[in-house]
Write a structure and sequence with these properties.
- By secondary structure, the protein is an all-alpha fold.
- The chain has one domain.
- It contains 3 helices and no strands.
- Bound molecules: protoporphyrin IX containing FE (HEM) (2 copies).
Length: 85
């Protein structure tokens, strides 16, 4: 259950950050009126400082989902609750 919540938090944080990249990116390039939401200076600061958290989150996100597939790859019986014969 806790793992489920963690997965969701990571996934939706990633989505929020992606939206933030677009908002701040367009604010910097003065496109679609996003420069009215925040100054170009603030947009630039946010855009460039999101790199490390974004990379960490995307690694976590991908790892969480492929973890079980990796386990299955190395075990002949990957199912935890496989019925006993
Ligand atoms: C910025 C990029 C990304 C964002 C914003 C994003 C966002 C999300 C979100 C919001 C979910 C749904 C989570 C849930 O409701 O449980 C999800 C699921 C998932 N994501 Fe991503 N994701 C990104 C990149 C990736 C990448 C690069 C991969 C794989 C290489 C990936 C693989 C998956 C998988 C396998 C699922 C689960 C699908 C399922 O269980 O139905 N994601 N992602
Ligand atoms: C997934 C989305 C995005 C990511 C991961 C991302 C990442 C980055 C990174 C890492 C840099 C710094 C590059 C450097 O050091 O020279 C950068 C710069 C920049 N990005 Fe993005 N970006 C994204 C989306 C966008 C969008 C949608 C726009 C809007 C057009 C945009 C506009 C810019 C601009 C104008 C710069 C140059 C800033 C400067 O003058 O220093 N970005 N971006």
């Amino acid at each position: 259950m806790k793992k489920m919540v963690f997965k969701k938090i990571v996934s939706y944080l990633l989505l929020v950050m992606l939206v933030m990249y677009f908002i701040t990116g367009f604010a910097m390039t003065r496109q679609f009126g996003f420069d009215h939401i925040m100054s170009r200076h603030l947009a630039h600061t946010i855009h460039l400082n999101m790199t490390i958290p974004f990379v960490i989150l995307i690694i976590l996100h991908v790892f969480i989902y492929i973890k079980s597939d990796i386990k299955k790859l190395f075990k002949s019986n990957g199912r935890k609750n496989a019925p006993k014969k």
